[in-house]
Design goal:
By secondary structure, the protein is mainly beta. Helix content is about 10%, strand content about 55%. The strands form 2 sheets. The protein has a 12-stranded antiparallel β-barrel. Strands 5-4-3-2-6 form a 5-stranded antiparallel β-sheet.
Length: about 300
């Protein structure tokens, strides 16, 4: 398969089928979608927190509340207002403002995975993004193949920014790959998450912009993600590619992971990158080890993420 280049840093893969078809229309549609998602996300997140607290109170179920500073509390709902919720813990009743919360989980007494620690790399598959977002005030450093580094930071529960660079020996500073981008997302309900991200790549004075959107269905141990995206270079744009992937947590420390990228190569033809592997999970880090199949040849994928 003849690829234009492959960005192995949790981002969109671009390829040589760059066509100049209705580029301005695509840009307007994607830009308007991104702005709408940005405006809707903050309100939706607060509404989701309130709905989760009300549901837990009605069903008399325990919740785990994670604040923006990383502190975690568990208990039963004492009260719910428009801006906050009171949670009765073993140390008394605490009143949590919705805008200080990064996550709320209802504990299922029949599902032990509901008490598991969060996946520090929940916002990505091997390469591309899922519909899930980083928590407010949290971030991570990711290293892929030793030569690619990326930093991401959650400005809020709905907005994150990132930047990355390559470190090829002897290539010089001007001949490295540099990236900068932003992601906006929200939860539609307790199981559906959507996001959109824009990214700019520059390499040897050549620039490419990508626009990508994804939706993730999350239930207990299983996450399923579907996404699509396009790239722009000068006056040309690529055909839209399709991402289908997911992960299944076998236990608190390990998850099976797969990411499959369908690349259109013509009006009716397409090629696919198929991947499979696993993610080793700890409280503050995740180690990905997998294989991508390209024209019946397997290529290893290795990446390490540490959360801060």
């Amino acid at each position: 398969m003849s690829l234009f280049f492959c960005l192995i840093n949790q981002h969109l893969i671009l390829y040589p089928t760059l066509d100049s078809f209705q580029m301005n229309i695509k840009r307007v549609v994607f830009s308007l979608s991104f702005i709408f998602l940005f405006s809707f996300s903050v309100f939706s997140q607060v509404s989701q927190f309130k709905a989760t607290f009300i549901k837990a109170q009605q069903e008399n179920k325990e919740v785990v509340v994670t604040l923006s500073d990383g502190n975690t509390y568990s208990g039963y709902i004492d009260s719910v207002s428009e801006t906050s919720a009171g949670v009765k813990t073993k140390n008394g009743v605490f009143n949590f403002q919705f805008d200080r919360i990064s996550d709320v989980k209802i504990i299922d007494p029949n599902d032990k995975s509901s008490r598991w620690k969060d996946n520090p790399a929940k916002n990505k598959l091997f390469i591309t993004q899922t519909g899930k977002m980083l928590d407010k005030g949290s971030g991570y450093y990711q290293n892929t193949y030793i030569f690619f580094s990326n930093f991401s930071y959650g400005i809020s529960n709905s907005i994150s920014i990132d930047a990355g660079f390559s470190m090829f020996p002897m290539a010089g500073i001007k001949n490295q790959l540099y990236t900068v981008g932003a992601k906006v997302g929200t939860s539609l309900n307790s199981t559906l998450f959507v996001s959109g991200n824009v990214k700019y790549y520059t390499f040897s004075n050549a620039g490419v912009t990508s626009l990508f959107g994804s939706i993730t269905y999350s239930k207990s141990r299983l996450d399923l993600t579907a996404g699509t995206g396009i790239g722009f270079a000068e006056n040309n744009s690529s055909n839209a590619l399709l991402i289908i992937g997911g992960q299944y947590r076998v236990n608190e420390r390990f998850a099976f992971l797969s990411e499959n990228i369908i690349l259109p190569t013509g009006d009716t033809d397409s090629e696919a990158l198929i991947s499979f592997g696993g993610r080793f999970i700890s409280t503050k880090s995740a180690f990905d080890l997998g294989f991508f199949s390209v024209e019946k040849t397997l290529f290893p994928f290795v990446s390490y993420t540490i959360k801060f």
